[in-house]
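Sample A.
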Amino acid sequence: MLAERGWLTRAHHGLYSLVPLDAAVSGEWIDDPWLVVAKLYPTGYIGGWSACEHWGLTDQLFREIVVFTPDRGAPRHADAGVTPIRIKFVKPSKVFGTTTVWRRNVRVNVSDPSRTVVDLLDDPAIGGGIRQVADVTDTYLSGDNQNEELLIEYSDRLGNRAVFKRLGYLAEMSDPRSALLVEACRSRISTGVSLLDPSSPATGPIVTRWNLRINVDISR
């Protein structure tokens, strides 16, 4: 009844948020979408492009919030007002490299900068595509949050060898000072050929040094 009258807005079945009196469109208003995420996905974390925005790794603005969760019983589709929530299910063992931030006295889990970059290299689509991921990686490697040892540690734990191929290739293009990072990646790549961007067609030249097919042009 309160939702129908505009006093509450529904985020999901059984979950509502109070609407302030000065809200322009009561049915679409959500005070802070991250609070909805914390309630619906307490064992998960905010990541992907949403974490990039939080850590200042990108100037791009995205309409959806990306959430990683190990809870298969969690809602597969949800919205925080006009903000859609994009879900990526992961194994419980893959939930690591996160930190807690406070939003209006509510604890919200978010991937730390290094884990954010590794997640994007694992699945460039949740970073807006490989071109955007290349920009984020460049910003990370040249910024205060840069931590090459942590990048390697997280990539090892994630267990996707293609991450090392993409990371090494991008690091080599981005920063000549990343020689140690590049060599660490080189020692961990697999023998098969991977795609620079898994969501794009498997065309383009193969860089044998990285066993990587460059199926998207990211040259600047």
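Sample B, a different protein:
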Amino acid sequence: MMRKKCTVCLLILFAASTLSGAGTAEKVRLAINKDLELGKRELMFASLASVCENPDGSFYVLDRMEHKVFQFSSGGKLIRSFGQKGQGPGDFQNPHLLAFTPKGQLVVADEMYNLTFLTEQGHFIERLHLDSLLSVGFIGDDRFYGWVWGQDHRIQVMVDRENNVLKNFFQVPLSAFSVSAPDESGRLVMFNYSRDEFAPGLQFAHSGRYSAIGIGDKYDIFILDEKGEMKSYLRRQIQPDRFSKKEKNYFEEDMEQLAKERGWPRSVLRGLIKKIPDEKIFFNRLLMTEEHVFVFRIKNDVTDESSPVPVDIFSIEGEFQGSAQVSAVPLHVSHDHFYFVRTDEQDNLFLEKAAYRILRDGPQD
């Protein structure tokens, strides 16, 4: 069981003079040029869950369904692969996230409980088991991220190697995406419907010495160092966008189809439809490098798959640089590359690596 030594409800916010968004932001654009594609010919991916870059330019790709990690050269040549489903040294159970530690170790984080530490060549070093911790992530040598269930909500936490809770961050109430109703046997069960556009998600990102923590319905993002201490604080004083009638109808139709497929009672469907809010959340993905934080916003029209994704760009010190657009939310961002998950005409997954530059065009109006 998880032992609580110290609990802090929320980090103390910086003084107003340090809040991001102060001052005049520049107009920015992202110049993106595709470098290579992986997974369309010799190597086929069953899934693409995570990517991270080695400082030498090679990069690692996690295939969650195959429980395997692939290492490629910067030019896309396969160097090695390692991992399998299991409980032995170097095996993975539910891998979901890759990261590099400042010491140069590769971390493979499981969705449930485990962090596996490996050499750059994939050789096993150690496995850390953090009981009850879900969506596990690496912050520092003795600081780790995840979320746990409270009585009726999910809570972001930071723990140490002994699984002591050091800090609590944001939380999502179960009522935000669930209704309870009797099933066919009369037993009371929970029915869930969660959409990234309106159900607030607990967000986490990591790069090198820093981590970002936030929740999608509040534009308050904490940047932590590897000891878990506050480095900077990201905020924008903006109002959330509202859903159009077209977008709400889109969600309702999707929900009705799901309820039909699963045989949900009409009372459940009505209850879940009532949970669709009038306003979108602010963002549904955080990515970062050691220089920048990328906050991926909700599309202007969530019903249009081809519409661009707005992205707010901050410096790691918390200064708002401006907003740009991308064709899709990348799986990973490094110092100079985006990694996108794409699909071909047969709906097969492949990875696209694209070089990018942040171009500044002067002050915004």
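Observation for Sample B: The first strand starts at residue 3 and ends at 4.
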